[in-house]
Design brief:
This protein is α/β, with parallel strands linked by helices and 416 residues long. It has eleven helices and 19 strands.
Length: 416
């Protein structure tokens, strides 16, 4: 069957990764729904796809197996009798659709799609009002006629999922298990349905330990979870991840019965802002002893070290007052680490390039990283620090506020 799931670091040689290529969901963005759908602008789909294909080509050219989310979901649906109908019902329910006839009409529209991959792509793209037929049904309700899309766009009856090309966020591989996340924004919560389908029903990837459940009470997102080594995680307390969610994660990996290797979690408190929504937007590992960091977090950063307590369900929590470099070196068992500043010592360049995901890099192997071409100041600094860079275009992809790390979900990395 080949490789399964195993990620013990952010820099071990990448062997298998899952992506989502932007699709028609971007065509259902409009000025009316940008804000609720968490976009600042409308990417040009054709160019966004070309940029994403260039990203995938860099990965393949370096021996990485590239999987696509929609194809994995389609394979899972085809492999499990009755699953497509179950998925459709849950999808409609979580879309917030109101009105009995509207729900039936959407179900009929999706049932009319014979090809499973086309069906999956349609659920991601969203459904417009002119795609469903309410007919002259006796039981029409006011909700059927008014419309139900969460975005408030009257031309849509089911919102698109335009953020799904940031495949790191809804679900993330930790060790040999998965965090299936409870997303911060209601508009993104349906995204985890696709991961639930893959990790529960896919012939190759089903059955992995679940470290976090999408139905949990508190919200957490994958961009805040970084694998430091087989025993240690760094998790951001951010706009998108609550400290109580980290407590849940810690309980599951420390005291669960699924064989987690994790014994230490470093919780990093970063500013709550759109610009710094996840830990990986301000902090990524680029080599064995090198990290790229946005200097704007250093003044307020607090780090908490969480380990098992003496009794089941208890934690030991220690506030780490040492410099971040010392905390990381101790966590990794190194004599020291280097923090490379996004934008260098230029505060304007640092702020601009962090906004354009200059701090959000994907390691193909230690010292080999994929970066956005547009962040020229930071890229030059990385080059001078001895890193090998693979630059990809990002004029349209970056409009969604995410970089190479956000756009990729590693399934398998070699051990260091």
């Amino acid at each position: 069957m080949g490789r399964g799931l195993c990620v013990h670091s952010e820099i071990g040689r990448l062997r298998t990764v899952m992506l989502h290529r932007p699709g028609d969901e971007l065509l259902n963005l409009s000025p009316a729904n940008l804000d609720p759908l968490l976009f600042d602008d409308i990417p040009f789909l054709q160019v966004a796809q070309e940029e994403h294909d260039a990203f995938a080509k860099v990965l393949r050219d370096h021996g990485v197996e590239v999987l696509y989310l929609d194809q994995l979901v389609a394979e899972a649906l085809d492999a499990t009798p009755g699953l497509r109908q179950k998925f459709t019902r849950r999808y409609i329910y979580e879309s917030g659709v109101a009105g009995v006839r509207m729900k039936e009409a959407i179900h009929e529209r999706l049932d009319d799609i014979g090809d499973t991959l086309e069906f999956v792509d349609k659920t991601i793209a969203g459904i417009r009002r002119d795609e469903v037929d309410l007919g002259a049904h006796k039981s029409l309700e006011l909700a059927d006629l008014v419309g139900t899309a969460q975005s408030g766009d009257s031309d849509l009856v089911v919102d698109p999922l335009p953020n799904l090309y940031f495949s790191r966020d809804p679900f993330v591989v930790v060790g040999r298990g998965v965090c299936l996340n409870h997303m911060y924004s209601e508009t993104r919560r349906r995204e985890t349905l696709y991961g639930q389908c893959v990790f529960t029903y896919h012939p190759k990837y089903a059955g992995a330990p679940l470290w976090f459940d999408r139905d949990g009470r508190y919200h957490m997102e994958g961009g805040d979870i970084l694998n430091l080594n087989a025993h240690t995680l760094a998790v951001g307390i951010s706009q998108r991840t609550q400290s109580a969610a980290i407590d849940e994660l810690a309980y599951n990996v420390f005291w669960g019965d699924r064989g987690s290797e994790i014994d230490t979690i470093y919780a990093l408190l970063i500013p709550e802002s759109r610009a710094m929504m996840h830990l990986d937007t301000v902090f990524t590992q680029v080599d064995v002893d090198k990290f790229l960091i946005h200097p704007g977090i250093m003044g307020t950063l607090r780090v908490f070290r969480v380990t098992r307590g003496m009794h089941r369900g208890e934690f030991q929590i220690r506030t780490s007052d040492e410099p971040l470099e010392d905390i990381l070196a101790d966590a990794l068992g190194l004599d020291g680490v280097q923090l490379i500043r996004c934008g260098g010592n230029d505060p304007i360049a640092g702020s601009r390039e962090q906004w354009n995901d200059g701090s959000n890099t994907l390691a193909l192997a230690p010292g080999q990283i994929v970066v956005y071409q547009r962040n020229s100041v930071t890229n030059e600094i990385l080059y001078k620090a001895g890193l090998e860079l693979f630059e990809i275009p990002s004029a349209e992809l970056s409009r969604g506020r995410g970089g190479p790390h956000c756009m990729s979900m590693p399934f398998y990395r070699d051990e260091l």
